[in-house]
Amino acid sequence: MSKEKNKFSRREALRLMGAAGATVLVAGGGKTTIWPASNALVTAESAGNSLNAANAVNSALFAPAPRVSFDVSQLSCVTKPALTEGPFFVDERLNRSDIRPDPSNNTVKQGAQLKLRFYVSRVTGATCVPLVGAWVDIWHTDALGAYSDVSGQGNPNNIGQKFLRGYQITDANGSVEFTTIYPGWYQGRTVHIHYKVRLFDGATRTYDFTSQLTFDDTLTDQVFTQA
């Protein structure tokens, strides 16, 4: 399982929360105030992770919503802020756990192997309930910082290739797992993995939540010492 560490400055936390609308934000330790969205859908990688931005909450951003205060240790999950979809989401509809192979040419992307496990929950009040049947898409660059099936904006022409993309559907524990490689860096961004959680009623999409995973630079530095 990967360990993600998210640390935001006050300015960035406010910007992200403003962009996310009524996205729930929880911080570890003590009590905090939550501005809940209706049936807010969130993802968590482990109950031990937390966002260090509780003090950045600005009630003016969420004035229309009711506020609920409780001890965050009651939560069995950790909420994440929505982030921009970012570059190059392509809805390939590739239902697979191992996203390293490219089905267009049967090659396998090389790199430091990475296992990712997501736990997806629906938060109601202070209760986290595993969400069954949610689609979890991930997409990211190869070890050299290039995305598949796109061209331009600094990316090589990889149209038709489908490496490092795929989705899984959450099980009874709200869990999915992926086998991939550690993503590469490209100019202007920290190393990251994009993910999208969607709900469907038949062919109709009823919910869409998008965010990104980032990594502790200490870990990235260790990975990037490898060939």
N to C succession of SSEs? HEEEEEEEEEEEEH
Shape: globular
Query: Quick one: how many beta strands?
Result: 12
Helix content: under 10%
> How much of the polypeptide forms β-strand, as a percent range?
25-35%
* Through-space gap between termini: 23 Å
- The chain-level mean pLDDT equals 73
Tally the helices: what do you get? 2
What kind of assembly state do the chains in view correspond to? single chain
Major sheet characteristics: 4 strands, antiparallel
Low-confidence stretches are 1-68
Rg calc: 18 Å
**Coarse structural class:** mainly beta
Describe this structure as you would to a colleague.
By secondary structure, this protein is mainly beta. The chain has two helices and twelve strands; from the N terminus they run αββββββββββββα. The chain has helices at residues 10-20, 217-223; strands at residues 31-34, 41-44, 68-71, 101-102, 107-108, 113-124, 127-130, 135-139, 165-169, 175-181, 192-201, 204-214. Strands 2, 6, 7 and 10 form a four-stranded antiparallel beta sheet that branches. A hairpin with a 4-residue loop joins β4 (101-102) and β5 (107-108). The chain is globular and about 45 Å long. The model is unreliable at 1-68 (pLDDT under 50).
